[in-house]
Amino acid sequence: xxxxxxxxxxxxxxxxxxxxxxxxxxxxxxxxxxxxxxxxxxxxxxxxxxxxxxxxxxxxxxxxxxxxxxxxxxxxxxxxxxxxxxxxxxxxxxxxxxxxxxxxxxxxxxxxxxxxxxxxxxxxxxxxxxxxxxxxxxxxx
Length: 141
What we know:
Helices cover 48% and strands 17% of the residues. By secondary structure, it is of the alpha/beta class.
């Protein structure tokens, strides 16, 4: 997606509820700033356990989930979210500094919709939201 297409699509992101789950404060703040500037409502949490209760509380339209976190990693948190009937259709985008085929395949196996390699760009982040927000998912059906 080109910069112009992303810029033109930002109006469609307004009000999209996005959760960013990452143990890195820098990643959380960077993603939050990029997403909020595009009009998204953003909730950030620092680990997989917090994510489970935050999903129930905030009911996000999309979740960005770090793979490597202490205690409950992103893969396990994704499985738990996807096994909950209320949230099984909530798109999860895995975030990782690893970009190997095995890592991406494992993300798919646990139910994630796509995989972004860190450091991600603003365009990659916004494109993931554009592709997986509820309106876009309904249009694919």
